[in-house]
Amino acid sequence: TQLLEQSPQFLSIQEGENLTVYCNSSSVFSSLQWYRQEPGEGPVLLVTVVTGGEVKKLKRLTFQFGDARKDSSLHITAAQPGDTGLYLCAGVRTSGSRLTFGEGTQLTVNP
Amino acid sequence: DTAVSQTPKYLVTQMGNDKSIKCEQNLGHDTMYWYKQDSKKFLKIMFSYNNKELIINETVPNRFSPKSPDKAHLNLHINSLELGDSAVYFCASSQNVNSPLHFGNGTRLTVT
Q: How many Cβ pairs within 8 Å bridge chains A and B?
C-alpha cells in the first residue's frame, strides 16, 4: 500500500479539455509538493503547499491542499500538448522526516 | 549552468560488472540523494547525504555503495550488476532535508 495514492494513473485527453489529478493519503502531511517529469529528464518542482485549504495557481494549473492536509489536487484548465508529462505528488508526513512520492499520473494531451 | 548534473546519461553493461554514476550540484545545497525509478515510473529513495554524512539508507543491496567526497558530489558505485538493477537512477539535491528537490536528468542503466 502506497502512502500517497495518485489517481488516475493514466490520462489521455484532447487539447482544450480540463482535468483534475488527485493525490490522497490517510496520513497528515506538513507539506505537499507537485512535480512534472518530461521524457528523458528529471522531475521539476511545480509548487509546494503547506497550509490546509491552501490554493495556489500557476497559469492554467491550480493546486489545492486539503483542509485536513491529507490530500491534494491539481487542476489543469484548457490543457495543451505542452502539459504532457508525468505528474508526481510528494509529501513529508507530520510524523515522519522523509519525502515520499506518489506513483504518478501520466498525462497525454493530444493536439 | 546545469544545477544538478549526473554522468553518464546512458550506461549499458553486462551482468557481473561494476559501474559508477557520478553526480555534482552547484546549488550550494546541503543534502543530496539517489533515487531509483523503475519501469512503472515509481520513484524510490535509495540514499541521502547531509553535509557528507549518510542520513537515509533504504533497504538497498550491499552491492550499492554511495560516496560523498564533499557537499557538492555524491557518487554511486554498483558492484556485481544484476538484471534487476536496470532502471533510471536520479541524483537530486535540496537546501535541507525537507526542502523541495532539484533533480538531475537521470542515468538509464541497462544490464544485459
A: 49
